[in-house]
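Page 47, continued from p. 46.
Same chain as before, 585 aa.
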Amino acid sequence: MTAITEDSKEMQKKNRKSDNAALISLLKQVNFPYFKYLFAVGLSTVLAMVLLGSLPQMAGDIAGGEIFDRNKVILYVALSIVGIVGLFPANLFLQYMKLDVERRSRDAMWSKFIHLPLGAFEKLQPSTLISRVLRDSTFASTFLTELFNFASVFLIMLVMFFVSLNNSVPLTLIIFPAVIALSILVVFGTRLVYKIQFEIQAKLSRLTAYLSERLSNVKFIKAEAMETFEDDTALKLFNEKFTADFNYSKFGAGLSAVMYTIDALVIGLSLIGGGVLLKSGAMTQAQLLSFLLIATNFPRLCYASLVVLMMLWSYRGGMKVISDINQIPVEQMKKNVPLSMPTGDITLNQVTFGYEENKVLKNISFTIPTGKTTAIVGASGSGKTTILKLLVRFYPLQAGTILFGETNAEEINLDEWRKAFGYVAQNSPLMLGTIEENITYGLDGDYTEAQMIQAAKTANIYDYIASLPQGFKTLVGELGETISTGQRQRIAIARAIIRDPSYLLLDEATSNLDSINEKEVSDALTKAMQGRTTVIVSHNLATVVNADQIIVLDKGAVEEQGSHAELVNSNRLYEKYFKIQFGKN
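Result:
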């Protein structure tokens, strides 16, 4: 049992060190303005010291009989005005700095997400990341902000403590029980808040993921008449989030009750003790009034410091997931070799790859000759689309190499490599924006209207765009829902064409289309393929019969390869597929 306890303590110690290191890393990313913040906090603290430290003492002197001391009254009024007027710009600057750091924190977190390797990104459940960017990403900067606030409150309390001692040592000692009681609350409360805040963030992320997924699939929900079911599911998640939030509120409410009890106790003891000291002549009325003004503020400052510490621990709880994500290395765009060499053959050499434990590709090898069309066919799940994803280096290989000429593709700059490929997927996405913005998305540098029109004409989509009142400035809905599937595919083809890529990857680009749209898209692809190295993935063998070579996959391995003429009478898998689609004769 002792060994287990020691191991547990050692693990907690390592976790704390890891969290601290992650916090420092996050703050470095947002370039936290330490000196500006120290200046703002310092100015605010000094002004608060003047208001809460000097003024109560002067107010006591004035009330004690120095009301006719003109200089003291003027000084009191002047200090009050300076403090009040000075606090406005100081606090405004602090708020500006806080919001600026939050903005930069969100930007840093978004940049982190967008540069993660695709495999790591997919494991994070992308739909949960909205709350991470909008809320969780600000926890690191807010943590440090509250840390500065705690230091400010502590300094103010220290000044007030010495002012209290100057008025009455016995009465000042009455404050200590309150400090001790609040310190005990800090020890037990902060650990509980850490756990509660961690639970709140988990519930919020789950709720965000659910809402994001369901709102993007409203048509499917309505088609299945599942509105009532989704109502009940959402209510359950809302209740879970409510419970987590209410647990935090209960702790805060209990703490407030304790605070006001201590506040009343301190003031009551101060009045009783002050009355005794005043009657015995050990204290003047001016000293008692000054002390009471401080005593009414001191417990509140103790409470404020406790709240700040609670927030610090709650932010640590919220930062845990962000800290873990921050440890994931991003994709390195710049490698050892620029992609400045002439277009060359691409060779997959004994490539093995899988998702988690599922091996999708097993030791496959073949060459994609430059300037030729290579088709990849096979049953669903045989690894066709995975090959395209590996060609654009979405995932690292688990074994084998992909060669560009004689160079390992992994050594070539990743951004240049991906720019060399035009990728048209089965359901090509469109971004929320205009048709022009979608066609030119990913295009480096300036472009001319003539280039955009030519790309649209090659993709057989120009006539449709020209018929729209706003033409290329027409807005498309989220995910392109306001236009048909065929039109969306042809816009995606135009997007690939305008970049003038050396390699064109077509992943079931004509599937799920009616016969008219299929022909228009096929014609567009035929024109787009001219003069380019093309890789086609398709179940429809009619779209691959003219390919220069056909790779036939079966269960993640290359079953056969050759031209259509060579394979159609091979008595093997390709001939079987062909006869199923077109008949035995």
